[in-house]
Amino acid sequence: xKQAVYLFLFLMLPxxxxxxxxxxxxxxxxxxQRLLEGxxxxxxxxxxxxxxxxxxxTEQRHLTELLSLAISEDCGRSLSTLSLPKWLQAVVIRRExxxxxxxVYYQFSIYGSSDSxxxxxxxxxxxxxxxxxxxxxxxxxxxxKLDIEGLSGAVHAGLYKLELxxxxxxxxxxxxxxxxxxxxxxxSWKDSRSWRIAPPTDLxxxxxxxxxxxxxxxxxxxxxxxxxxxxxxxxLPTSLPVIDVPNGQYWFSVAxxxxxxxxxxxxxxxxxxxxxxxxxxxxxxxxxxxxxxx
Length: 294
Hints:
Helix 2 packs antiparallel against helix 3 and helix 3 runs antiparallel to helix 4. By secondary structure, this protein is α+β, with helices and mostly antiparallel strands. Helix content is 18%, strand content 37%.
């Protein structure tokens, strides 16, 4: 790991500046140095500080690249030592791109579960742009899903803050570093029942392999739950299997999901493709007249 970090840092430096690189005292310099020393959590704290300072475009790019390198240590588990409070069992942040035949749209969601209940959730972009402000009701205080509304593109890399308050009035917050959105479309339609998946580029990744989530929905209004679903994390399929459903038109989605962590917070980057399909498929060759058949 240290050899990879050193090579990365060396390539990032302008020619002739490497000798003086660690003589500075700014947060970006500290983040590089701490990561080189193997202190991932301290490097992460320095990255947070660096995002709060004035930065050039080059420095912002260095910060996003540095975060990606820090994640490669153990898929982000050692980025933060901050643990979840006892009243909060799980937090998941999901960034999703959905591609349909007619358009592409974007989602950014925060999921959580709490045995005792969550009363309020706020998610903000540094310095003070509130993206989610929600007072939860008793119906969703134990399990919630909150979305950033009106996105015209994928949520970009940067510094954010997540704040939660329990129904008992206890507060918990965490800085969140969002990584750069994936620039490559890794899953795409081949035809109405099959798709292509780009081969992995990092065969030595410390993160779990991407997994595939398939869901089939009825097109009736109000039918939110899938009538069929399946997930695969090995030998990812590239076509819809035979499903025993009544004849008709359905909404079918396939999602390629990649996971990483920021300490106790789980991140999911999702690329989803979706379209209407008619089931069961009819083989037109079976309907054609056979020789000597009228």
